[in-house]
Amino acid sequence: MIDVHPAGSQGPAPCAASSAAASSQASEAARDLVARVKAHAVPDSFRGLRQLLVTAAAFAGLWLAMWWCLDVSYWLTLALAIPAGAFLVRFFMIQHDCGHGSFFRSQRANDLVGRMISVLTLTPYTYWRRLHAEHHATSGNLDKRGVGDVTTLTVREYLALSRWQRFMYRLYRHPLVLFGIGPAYVFMIKHRLPLDLPLRKIRLWGSVLATNGAIAVVLVLLAVLIGPIDMIKLQVPVTFVAAAIGVWLFFIQHQFDGVHWWRGDDWHPDHAALYGSSYYSLPKILQWLTANIGLHHIHHLCSRVPNYRLQECQDRVPELGQARRVTLLESLRCTRLALWDEAEKQLIRFRDLKRMRRLGPRS
After folding, report:
1. Cα(65)–Cα(63) distance, rounded to whole angstroms?
2. Is pLDDT at 176 greater than 90 in this prediction?
3. Closest to 25 in 3D by CA, of 1, 48, 2
4. Phi, psi (5° rounding) for residue 346?
5. How confident is the model at residue 74 (pLDDT cuts 50, 70, 90)?
6. Which region, left, alpha or beta, applies to residue 236 given φ > 0 means left and ψ of -120 to 50 means alpha?
7. Which of 19, 242, 276, 314 could pair covalently with 14 via S-S, beta carbons 3.0-4.6 A apart?
8. Contact call for residues 249 and 307 (beta carbons, < 8 A)
9. How far is CA 104 from CA 49, 60, 92, in A?
């Protein structure tokens, strides 16, 4: 296995010559690793179309079953909203691949399907694609936080806040807000009117407004066909479920025990991919439902690898095992991680900070 150490890793200080040689060897190993990953960046339009049709059929079937169950039991309808929401997340993953130009061979097909799906996911295609590209360019970089990520403060930044600001940050990081209220706000409200988007970004605003218009047309048609009340009863819970799952996946892909973040010149995209992104090891059915997005370290090494090739890439490139593997059970314990401790280079909980302050300053 080729060891591609992250910057800032601990170890004995070598002489200048051996350090340069080691750095050169590590760079060569990193380039070789990325080249072998890129070999899987080959879209298969047939596999993509098959995945799209299976996802559409399953989602439509579940949605119709929910509608039928309205006359039987609304609790049954709500129960079906969970798998329906999961398939909506799968739709989002397809849109995500289209945004990277990796789902189909044709960029025109990627853009067409991505824009169509955006009406279901409530996520403007061009607007989100731009933000997501910035996320890939800055992920794991402490100096460039704030674009397409979950807001995370360092210990020093948190301690510099007022009492009210600390309360608001703790509220924001509470699981009920982070994975409940927050996702609903982002997908239902913020994506409708992204006030942080400068007015001069005409193309991005066009994406937002066009998506809003298409969503309005679909909602009106549904309201006419099945009635506005039934439409709300069906679509709102599905959207809530999908939004919560989507934000959860995004959170655990970059916030987990053992994650590495860097500042300045210490940051490198390959290191950020391998050590700043998780290998979320899910049960096979959940991995399938989420379109392999748990293999996030590969996705950040090369975003052009289609989701349906991520597992084969993982199997064929053993060096990818260097990424931090997070199981489903382990991931549940990451919900309380809230602050980046620059001294210890790790994410910590609020209770850890309280204990650290009680013990006094560290040497």
Report:
1. 5
2. yes
3. 2
4. -160, 160
5. very high
6. alpha
7. 19
8. no
9. 8, 22, 15
Q: Would you give the end-to-end CA distance of the chain in angstroms?
A: 36
Distance CA 173, CA 79 (A): 27
User: Residue 30 class from Cβ within 10 Å (0-12 exposed, 13-18 middle, 19+ buried)?
Assistant: buried
| C-beta of residue 11 within 8 angstroms of C-beta of residue 22 | no
3-state secondary structure of 196: coil
Encoded tokens for 183: 């996702």
One-letter amino acid at 106 equals: S
What are the C-alpha distances in Å from 280 to residues 203, 254, 284, 311?
35, 10, 11, 12
Beta bridge partners of 154: 340
Strands 279-281 and 325-327: parallel
Contact predicate 240/189, CB 8 Å: no
Question: Residue 299's closest CA among 287, 311, 291, 310?
Answer: 310
- Boundaries of every domain in the chain: 38-359
Instruction: Tell me what pLDDT residue 211 has.
Output: 96
Nearest-CA neighbor of 121 among 167, 55, 204, 70? 55
Which region, left, alpha or beta, applies to residue 106 given φ > 0 means left and ψ of -120 to 50 means alpha?
A: beta
Nearest to 38 by CA among 274, 303, 297: 303
DSSP notation for 321-351: GGSPEEEHHHHHTTTTEEEEETTTTEEEEHH
3-state SS record for 53-97: HHHHHHHHHHHHHHHHHCCCCHHHHHHHHHHHHHHHHHHHHHHHH
103 touches 94 (CB < 8 A): yes
Q: pLDDT tens across 317-332, in order?
A: 988 988 899 999 999 9
Separation CA 314–CA 309 (nearest Å): 9
DSSP state of 181: I
Q: How far apart are CA 62 and CA 182, in angstroms?
A: 25
Give CA–CA dist 160/163, Å, rounded.
Answer: 9
Residue 24, CB-side half-sphere exposure with 13 Å CA sphere:
6
Residues 6+ apart with CB under 8 A from 13: 19
